[in-house]
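Field reference: sequence -> structure
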Amino acid sequence: MSQEVFEIMQNMDMEAVESQLALQCAPVLAGLKISNLLNIHKSKVCILKQLLKETNLSYYVLLENAKRVAILIYQRKALHQYLMLPEVSAFLKRVGYSENDLQKMFALLSLRYKQCMCRQGEFPHEMGLFLGYPLEDVQGFITNQGRNSLCSGYWKVYENKEAKMDLFRQYEQAKEWMVLFVSNGVDLIEAMDMLRNGHLYSVYL
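Structure field:
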């Protein structure tokens, strides 16, 4: 992240849903990624739902406690298509996902995530697939127990390092644009449209 954008962030309301969407979910807002995990204060969920109503994005609450909520923000069709790829689907079936229905799959993922957070089970590494991570990197992480990665960014990379690094750079660029848009009061829908269609202009005007 550039120094300029970092300085802008210092003056942003970091509790605002728009700010957290920009920081945590810019790649999915830009259409570069099929899903992102968003962690926000529980009191902000209603605002989030209102914001997402006007978008093509869906959400699923994976975990919540007295104060915070972990929500999967995703592109429904794209995520389902990815999870139904033969090799991805076969992996998920091996780890217990017998259903092809997204909501039922989310329910099992949520249960395992909750058990992990309560120290009643292992971390569900298949979550990486629900976040759109490449299967080879999810499998590489499991096989190597998180070690020996070629590089690390939005996830740990075990194959195709250069292509993944280029993708990470695109994600970071999307984040910088979203931060600039939010800090200048650009509407979420308008910001998403500009990011997805390349209609970027100077937000300093």
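Note: Confidence is low (pLDDT under 50) at residues 201-205.
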